[in-house]
Design goal:
The chain is α+β, with helices and mostly antiparallel strands and 174 residues long. It has four helices and nine strands; from the N terminus they run αββββββαββαβα. It has a seven-stranded antiparallel β-sheet with strand order 4-3-7-1-2-6-5. β1 and β2 form a beta hairpin. The longest helix has 16 residues. The chain is globular.
């Protein structure tokens, strides 16, 4: 660990960097971006793949956190699908502002490597037995797609109510 020239103690930056590397190595899974496609001005479809994703147990409604760059800055997404045989997952990302998640989703391209934390339980969709109504905004489109995957055809009536900024854009993506 580098020693600070002013006080002969490890710098705070060095300690946080060591913590980041340790956390990433122990708890995160590397994944390669294989596709990043604009679906509209604010929506992107992003596919990630790796051998490490073959070992994951994912259920529709689970979440995954994507490490955006240096530090332990992550954003949480609901994958729309997960193929354990291929070690592949897909995200539908709504870029709604100038924040770190929107910047990452806008700039990411095939060949980029990212670290993923999860998947982890978020919203269980497996035990829904009757009519289900999902209320949300553009950021819940991926959860709606996951719900569609989890539903047994004919056994569950699903209704979606979305509050959106641009109705035409939302309709084209859905």
């Amino acid at each position: 660990m580098p020693i600070s020239e002013t006080n002969n103690r490890p710098s705070v930056h060095s300690a946080s960097s060591l913590l980041e590397r340790t956390f990433t190595r122990l708890f995160m899974r590397p994944a390669l971006v294989t596709e990043a496609t604009d679906l509209s001005e604010k929506f992107r479809y992003i596919s990630l793949q790796s051998e490490a994703l073959k070992e994951c147990s994912w259920k529709p409604g689970d979440k995954v956190q994507v490490k955006l760059g240096k530090g332990i800055i992550t954003r949480t997404y609901t994958p729309i699908s997960w193929n354990m045989d291929k070690g592949e997952t897909q995200l539908l990302v709504y870029c709604h502002g100038e924040g770190p998640g929107s910047a990452w989703a806008t700039d990411v391209s095939p060949g980029d490597e990212r670290q993923l934390f999860g998947p982890r339980n978020s919203i269980s969709l497996n035990h829904l037995t009757s009519t289900t109504i999902l209320f949300g905004d553009e950021t819940t489109f991926a959860l709606a797609l996951a719900l569609e995957q989890a539903a047994t055809p004919g056994a569950l009536h699903r209704h979606y109510v979305f509050e959106v900024t641009d109705r035409e854009e939302a309709a084209s993506v859905l």
